[in-house]
Write a structure and sequence with these properties.
alpha+beta; Pdz3 Domain; four-stranded antiparallel beta sheet; 14 helices
Length: 575
Amino acid sequence: MHELGHFLAAKLCGLKVLRFSIGFGLKLFSWRGKDGCEYRLSLLPLGGYVAIPQLSDMGKMEGEEDEDFKKIKHLPKASYGAKVLVAFSGAFFNVLFAIFLALIVYIVGIPTSTENQTTQIGYVPQFIFPDGETQMENSAFTAGVQAGDIVLAVDGKHVENFIQIREAVALGAERTPEGKPFCELLILRGEEELRIGTLPVLVPTNSRTGDEIRMLGIIPASRLIVDSVFENSPAEKSGLQSGDEILFVNGQRAFSNNQIVSILNKNPEKPLLLGISRDGKDMQLSVMPTQVAKTKPLCEVLDANKNTLFTVLPTDIKNNQDPTNPSTPATLRVFEKKNDLSEHIEIGAILYQASGKDLNSLSDLNTILNFEPEKNQHTLKFIKGEFLSELVLEKGASSVIIASKFSPMLGYMIARDLQTIHPSIIKQIKNSMSTTYYALKGLVNPRSDIGLKQMSGPIGIGRAIFEISKIDIILVLSFAVLLNINLAILNLLPIPILDGGHILIATIEKVTGKSISQSKIIAITHMVFALLFVSLMVYVVYSDAQRWSGDINSAQQESLQSQFYLNNIQFSANE
């Protein structure tokens, strides 16, 4: 669409168009139209170009200077108005296309959850785990942010939903005098506006690239509508029903289910008083929680000094088997490990043999490793995909079974409160412009925590579109609105080889009355920036590939982590 804008504007101005290429470099195939223009698909899918030599001779940079370029040397140079119009039309067509897509999004609507569309805080935990393991005190909690607070602005930027809150925090560039990330929230509590300073934490998002992003330990508020109630659970016995909305817990306004879970964990042996609404009527239910198995057991393999080497998780357990029993037949997989074991085993690898004996359960492994450990040296065999590996344990190595974890539970599921919103065209364009502006601002600000390595190219954008398409195709169109506005703004920056750079050079020529577009200085400048641009693209594509690899590893670990928790929660009829 961008290059189509250049093409049509050039035709409108009566300029000669030699080539319309999707991609750069060597051509894969092409055809010549009746207008004499060559339409081609080129090797490098990193954009495209329209060859208009009357504007500037970019033949050597955009493909190759061939006989077609030599034949048009006699054509008159384009006027200032034509240069500006053609250069501007690419971005203009991006905006037009974005408006068209935004119209479709407005008519059809975007599926979303109500918690993403609120600015009300539902829960503020006292402690957070940025890397999934290390416990930290939550700055938002210590600063006094409370459930029920409504966020009006982040670092002075007005926010309208929780997506914008996360975005504003992530792109923030404020810091404390000590250099720590800082964020100021403007909140509404009751009828009082408060400014609260917090310290966002850098949360790792990719193990391969080392990407980190600023986050606050706050969770959005949501409606607590009961979707289902477990059989024989305390919730069922107390009379809680599907469709009930939980409004209060122990007299406190309930803003999030995390809030209820927190209260449960602090007072597991005390009943909870739930204030609910059913068919427009308010009532109270007293529910006594019960301890229920939440996870599978693990087998922790220890060295001779009783330090943990790795842990093993039972997987692929049949539905009719007890997942909490270490003797239950299962496939054993590496769940966690020390970093110095990376050459021997990987997370998710199957441990199938110990000292020549096949392993069918956690108990099998535990029995073998604890049989006269001071005398025996064990060889463990692993497999992951098509790769086999071995690990020889020193004498004195042993293991211990870590029993299933139990948690207090009531026995209900909260329904996901979904809705369809119809953002206006103006709002979509405005939000896309705002996102692009703050991303660029953060990118060039050394005080922010985003940089070139966070940028995405064709691979990253393609992956994002693919993942979004699995949710709803209308989200792809919404994302395309952002992409087109982003492309329009970036191309109008006054940087050589970009459209904004061409407009700048044409304006300088108009003001000074001197032709500089064909000078050696401009040619060298264009070449230098072209090389910088290609280098940046190579770097971004490499980062995208690394990020993809890291995401695959993260997805595998998340899949394994999900298998640690029991999906089929069972409540005893006798409880």
